[in-house]
Amino acid sequence: TVVKKVVGMAGDSVLVRADQTTVNGAGVAGPLDMAERLDMPLATLERTMVVQSGELFLVGTLPGAYDSRYVGPVPTSDVVARAIPIW
Question: Which strand (E) or helix (H) includes residue 44?
């Protein structure tokens, strides 16, 4: 079980680039810094997509997070809970 931030929902436009990921034009994540460690060519990760119904686009808040930038949108059925910061 992991905690990730939901940055894209059904209908949102996502652009994943080597230097930044945007959702509807707003920056939501920095560079694809895990690509080399995961032996994933940047050309296979850079893409434009629209999040479909029943999917969420998730990003981690720490550098080196493994998230939707690498694996794509996640089915909403895979979400088991909602985390809310209390500080």
Answer: helix 42-45
82 half-sphere exposure, CB direction, 13 A CA radius = 3
Residue keyed to tokens 């794509």: 72
Taking only the tens place, the pLDDT of each residue in 13-29 is: 999 999 999 999 999 99
Order of strands, edge to edge, in the sheet holding 13-16? Answer: 26-29, 21-23, 13-16, 47-50
For 70, residues 6+ apart whose C-beta sits below 8 A from its C-beta are 32, 34, 35, 38, 40, 45
- How many of the other CB atoms lie within 10 Å of CB of 62? 5
Answer whether 0.90 is exceeded by the pTM.
Answer: yes
Contact 55, 75 (CB under 8 A): yes
